[in-house]
Amino acid sequence: MRPKKNLDASFLRVTILGTGTSQGIPVIGCHCEVCRSDDPRDQRLRTSALIQVGDCHIVIDCGPDFRQQMLRTGTEHLHAILITHEHNDHVMGMDDVRPFNFMQKCDMPIFSTVQVAQELRARFAYAFETNPYPGAPRLMLYEINAQTPFYVEGVEIQPIEVQHGQLSVLGFRIGRFVYITDMKHIAPSELWKLTNCDTLVVNALNQQGHHSHLSLTEALDFIRHIRPRQAFITHISHTMGRHSEVSRLLPHNVALAWDGLSFEVPLL
């Protein structure tokens, strides 16, 4: 999609909707100190973010907590959903786009890779039937790739390819904001897309290490290499430790993100 209008905005606003892993925190049946914590920063919905540029509202990932996240933020208009990859904790909220369909009287634009689009058509087949049930979600799939920027309501978005184990995943750059989740590796050829990044959100599952996610140490090394003004950690497991304790280990410009965190980032 090409630009539709000029944007009267010099900043974008990011609201972190969820910062947890596929199980969320607290984890069902778990009695660890994180899952029993009364600190609201330790209570984490599945990973997602809301981006606002002027009147344009974009959500990154639509997991099983999408409905609750939209209610928490009071979001009543949504221009597009960007999907990083096809794992359930990033796509299983698709049925809950229906209120936006009803209010906006149009299909919801969904931007994803070809592979993710195929998965969405399979998992939500009822939404793509020739004559769908009248109450089914209405989704308009736009296939994107890491090589080509695309636009939502005039907002330019640059996809960034990273590796989640053996799975290719997309991060996204909007202005000087970069959002990457579920990463273990990134090819050197993709690093130019992070040049002059002001604010970076990146995943770190725990402090021990994982085969398909960055550990905290790996994430901090990555942040030092990119050198953003500030960085936030997301996609956090209950095995990471309590927010208040892990925060003491972090550099001055890095913080564990929490659900509801909001901040502004320059577009240029």
Notes on the protein architecture:
Helix content is 16%, strand content 28%. It has 268 residues and is α/β, with parallel strands linked by helices. It has a single domain (11-266), classed as Metallo-beta-lactamase, Chain A, CATH 3.60.15. The strands form 2 sheets. It has a 7-stranded mixed beta sheet. It is globular. The two termini are 21 Å apart.
Set down the secondary structure blueprint:
Elements: E1 11-18, E2 48-53, E3 56-60, H1 66-73, E4 80-82, H2 88-91, H3 98-104, E5 108-112, H4 114-123, E6 139-143, E7 150-152, E8 155-164, E9 167-174, E10 177-179, E11 199-203, H5 216-226, E12 230-234, H6 243-246, E13 254-256, E14 262-266
